[in-house]
Amino acid sequence: MKSFKELVKADLKTFTNTDEFADKHEFMGEIIDVTETSNETSEAKISKKVDLYLDGVFTSFKRINFEAGQVETPTEGDLVTYDYVTHKVLSSSESAGLVTIELILTDD
Known about the structure:
Layout lengths: L3 H12 L7 E5 L2 E18 L4 E16 L11 E4 L2 E11 L2 E8 L3
Antiparallel strand pairs: 1-2, 2-3, 3-6, 4-5, 5-6
């Protein structure tokens, strides 16, 4: 019997398939298949290390997922382009062949 990770990896093509859930997006100069799981607005945090918020200051972020190997995976703090707009990487992880990145708009 296959492990859970093996089953997830086998289903990865479904989630990153443009006929199913993914769409084509520009990321770091390449057009890749991306699943955008959120485009949320939340209260801005002063620091990731403590739960201090800036009352009334809101920021927009996106969480994107794509199959590993399409582009180099950025690290936290990197500036990247997503749909030709500069964003800062809040977090970046890879598990079972799927890259998950949280992005925030930046003025840079």
